[in-house]
């Protein structure tokens, strides 16, 4: 048995809903506005689509168009302090 690790896979719609406000990496099956890879903040998931802000610009990505997606863990000092 393995754990999903820090970069959690977002495979279901409820995974996206839980990742709101987090940094995510999404790859789509077909280009959206000329790009297939998006790395930014997941600001909303509603109506079967994710809203992701990349470099100050918002993109609406339908869940059906997502080829793969991951939540990116943001490291903090607490991760390295050894405190449990």
Give the structural class: mainly beta
How many beta strands in the DSSP annotation? Answer: 5
Mean pLDDT: 89
Largest sheet: 5 strands, antiparallel
Q: Which descriptor suits the 3D outline?
A: globular
Number of alpha- plus pi-helical segments: 2
Stretches where pLDDT is under 50 for at least 5 consecutive residues are none
CA radius of gyration is 14 Å
Order of strands, main sheet, comes to 4-3-2-1-5
What string, H for helix and E for strand, traces the elements in order?
HEEEEEH
Distance between the termini: 23 Å
Question: Could you characterize the architecture of this molecule?
Answer:
It is a single chain. The protein has 84 residues and is mainly β. The protein contains two helices and five strands, in the order H-E-E-E-E-E-H. It has a five-stranded antiparallel sheet. The longest helix is centred in the N-terminal third of the chain and has 6 residues, at 13-18. It is globular, with a radius of gyration of 14 Å. The two termini are 23 Å apart.
Task: Using brief descriptors, characterize the structure shown.
5-stranded antiparallel beta sheet, 5 strands, 2 helices, 12% helix, globular, mainly beta, 84 residues
